Amino acid sequence: GPAERPPGLRERAALALTAARVRTAGLTDPVSEQDLVAQHSPLMSPLVWDLAHIGNMEELWLLRNVAGRASLHPEIDPLYDAFEHPRAERPKLPLLGPDEARRYAAEVRGRVFDLLERTPLEGTALLDSGYVFGMIAQHEQQHDETMLITHQLRPGAPVLAAPEPDAPYDPPAAPEVLVPAGPFTMGTSAEPWALDNERPAHIRETGAYWIDTAPVTNAAYEEFIADGGYREPRWWAAPGWEQIRTHGIGAPLFWRREGGQWLRRRFGVTEPVPGEEPVLHVSWYEADAYARWAGRRLPTEEEWEKAARHDPATGRSTRYPWGDGDPTADRANLGQRHLRPARAGSYPAGASALGVRQLIGDVWEWTSSDFLPYPGFRPFPYREYSEVFFGPEHKVLRGGSFAVDQVACRGTFRNWDLPVRRQIFSGFRTARDGGA
Ligand code: AVJ
Ligand code: FE
């Protein structure tokens, strides 16, 4: 019957925009006025900035650039341009207050729904397949993850709640999987809402390599700490060694040692570090140092994507490790359904063709690769999404965390950050070269 008909593009766009706004409300409505306007870390904006910035990007792309309307409130536009004001400066700006920001975002959204009903989703690159609506839903979800990071950094009592992961758990027998040498298709030219940096599809070659079946766990990472990993310069890239010396770092962010055990603070609650869970809140330097200590290395970005998408039986690259179907609750820990990763070895239904687990969801995974354009890259629709960040200073993360919504997560999705960053929901898995 009609209930089983897959949603059309217009409906998909409306659902994605609404899901993002429900999540935004959940991240801001339970927060006090004072905590919405405060800056909880110099790395982050006040939550009230993200809230109005979400509305302002939506107005810019959908109401001004697509529909050709005039700015609703020209005086506020410069306040919410991420390139005009670095995060540390944002609390001093004359920002909209919480209620004004909510009203503004809601006003924009009402007009956007009118536009979505009346606009053909074809004819221009921005409108084809509803691209710009999908891009704006992804933008809001990305800021929702950013706001969740702010929640994690915020001192004080918890305001968020979610059920514990109840994922199917069936630890794989082998700790690593051999990926055969040969070509595969990286990136996409077919995924309608893929962002510019995921395009175009192109062929890459890799050698044979072994990759961890699941992300590195807290228990494994604790062995590195206990073995003096943070006191041994030979494991560390020079800037990483400098960072841990300067800041006295000896464990992942939010960890502390008490009574002979590791505790961590997670969204306002202190708890023992769970050994079977993927390690979280490590920098690229910490991931790189652990891998070297373990006699291994981080996977390159193409090795990660080949493990996640290449089906040796068909030679095709799939959208996700499990195939082309959308993520489901038994395949991946996405969408802030839980406020933590699931145990390493969960989600057997989400395994890749070769049996690699938890590539999608749980923790973002650092790769060894710099964030660079694919051959044939074209900035679209704005240079400031990806192009201005290309270069050796940013490292690529793959796979998405528990805080990523499925609209902004697929086998081709690329995230990036500075290698010193640890407040993000970052973990990793390791690799090593395969035999001849
Ligand atoms: C892709 C997560 C690095 O948050 O800086 C949000 C996403 N771009 N608004 C970021 C983004 C513009 C971006 N990351
Ligand atoms: Fe943004």
UniProtKB/TrEMBL annotation:
Q: What is its EC number?
A: 1.14.99.50
Domain DinB-like: where? 16-147
Where does the source fall among the domains of life?
Answer: Bacteria
Q: Which cofactors does this protein require?
A: Fe(2+)
**Residue stretches making up the Sulfatase-modifying factor enzyme-like domain:** 175-432
Its pathway is:
Amino-acid biosynthesis; ergothioneine biosynthesis
- The broad enzyme category this protein falls into is oxidoreductase
Catalysed reaction, written as an equation: gamma-L-glutamyl-L-cysteine + hercynine + O2 = gamma-L-glutamyl-hercynylcysteine S-oxide + H2O
Note down the stretches annotated as region Disordered.
304-332
**Annotated gamma-L-glutamyl-L-cysteine binding sites:** 87-90, 417, 421
| Keyword flag Lyase | no
Q: What is this protein called?
A: Hercynine oxygenase
What is the organism field in this record? Streptomyces subrutilus
What gene codes for this chain?
Answer: egtB
